[in-house]
Amino acid sequence: MVWPALLFIIVFSYIPMYGVLTAFQDYSLFKGFLGSPWVGFKHFEMFFHAPVFWDIMRNTLVISLLKLIVGFPAPILLALMLNEVGNQAYKRTIQTISYLPHFLSWVIVSGFVMSILSTDNGSLNILLQKLHLIDEPINFLSLPEYFWTILVTTGVWKEIGFASIVYLAAIAGVDPHLYEAASMDGASRFRQMFTITLPSIMPVITVFSILAIGNLLHAGFEDIILLGSNPVLRDVSDVLDTYVYRIGILNSRFSYATAAGLFNAVISVGLLMGANHLARRSGNSLW
């Protein structure tokens, strides 16, 4: 039964790794992998000395850290709060409402966000004007200072419900006798949350935190492409993934884009191994 999964990984993950060779070549579609000339680390040097390199790295790290700091604990908090809801019908309703955005594509979500933030009858601008907080509508998606906030907030809203499923499942596996014993000792529900619930699900939190750190240089792609498509936002929206797409696919610089992508992958593997090494001290590492 393991063979289908192994074949899937080999065909779609390991065989395509052969394409990494293009990072060390002046790759040509007509000459192929074997006929293209080898140039060593030429494209890596070009990438590191590119005028936009530090801007791209800054945007990637800032957006990733914001998503990690805000987006990672959000589903944990939601799961903890839902666990305290006694009315099952109300709890299921909240769960369903919070799950639904995950199943919407980023195309729909970005259109929804653009509609809310629009200067022409946008809900947010109308509300702010009604409250006399602004005099004229603000074009939020054309102002760089608002982009990171909009991007992170939208991502949290979209994924918080679905991401909380794993934590709710982990909480459901906690021995109820622990809560009964704590209640008999006079511990409040709030106290039980910190002394029983959180320590019990800490292995799950640790595993997901390791994976999140490993993806630190993957700041996002679809959300940034759709919400940050305005050229005015390029200075704050261009990250490694969007840069690789623009240079590699749109400009057909395959070798250069592969070098940038390989750099991203190597750093990500290093971060993953480093985070796992630190987590191993607590006994909750991935391997």
Descriptive overview:
The protein is built from 15 helices and no strands. With 287 residues, it is mainly alpha-helical. It has a domain of 165 residues: MetI-like fold (Orthogonal Bundle), CATH 1.10.3720. Helix 9 packs across helix 11 and helix 11 packs antiparallel against helix 15. The radius of gyration is 23 Å and the shape is globular.
Q: What's the arrangement of secondary structure elements?
A:
Blueprint: H1 3-14, H2 32-35, H3 42-48, H4 53-71, H5 73-83, H6 88-99, H7 106-117, H8 123-130, H9 144-172, H10 176-184, H11 189-214, H12 222-227, H13 234-237, H14 240-250, H15 254-280
Helix pairs in contact: 3-15, 4-9, 5-9, 6-9, 9-11, 11-15, 14-15
In short:
The chain has 287 residues and is mostly helical. It is built from 15 helices and no strands.
The name of the CATH architecture of the domain at 43-90 and 164-280 is: Orthogonal Bundle
Low-confidence segments, given as residue ranges, are none
Calculate Rg over CA atoms. 23 Å
The end-to-end span amounts to: 23 Å
Shape: globular
Give the mean pLDDT: 91
Order of helices and strands: HHHHHHHHHHHHHHH
CATH class of the domain at 43-90 and 164-280 reads Mainly Alpha
Sheet having the most strands: none
How many DSSP helices? 15
Find the CATH topology of the domain at 43-90 and 164-280: MetI-like fold
CATH homologous superfamily name of the domain at 43-90 and 164-280? MetI-like
Structural class: mainly alpha
Helical content class: 55-70%
Kindly estimate the percentage of residues that lie in beta strands according to DSSP: under 5%
Keywords: Cell membrane, Membrane, Transmembrane, Transmembrane helix, Transport
Protein name: ABC transporter permease subunit
Domain ABC transmembrane type-1: 57-275
Subcellular location: Cell membrane
